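Example protein was shown:

_____
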Amino acid sequence: RLSQAVLRAPGVNLISKNQRAMVDLLATDVRYDTTQADELLRGSGIHCPSLDSYIEELVSYVQRRLREERARSEARVEALEVPPR
């Protein structure tokens, strides 16, 4: 599987377990039967956009959240550090 190959790549061990789980989840081959949803939405003008149309926004969101979490973690560590005397 692609996700397993990615996880064996050099440096990937630096990724947290949660991020590794996300990579595995994203690489999982999933197919959904949208027959009923398509039928209900037919003629409404509502449709599911292609992943290509919003993947960059999803990646940006995840990157932003990771930066924010890193900053919070660093702030917690700094708050615990004892200043030199």
About this structure: The mean pLDDT is 80. The helical segments are 2-7, 17-26, 35-41, 55-80.
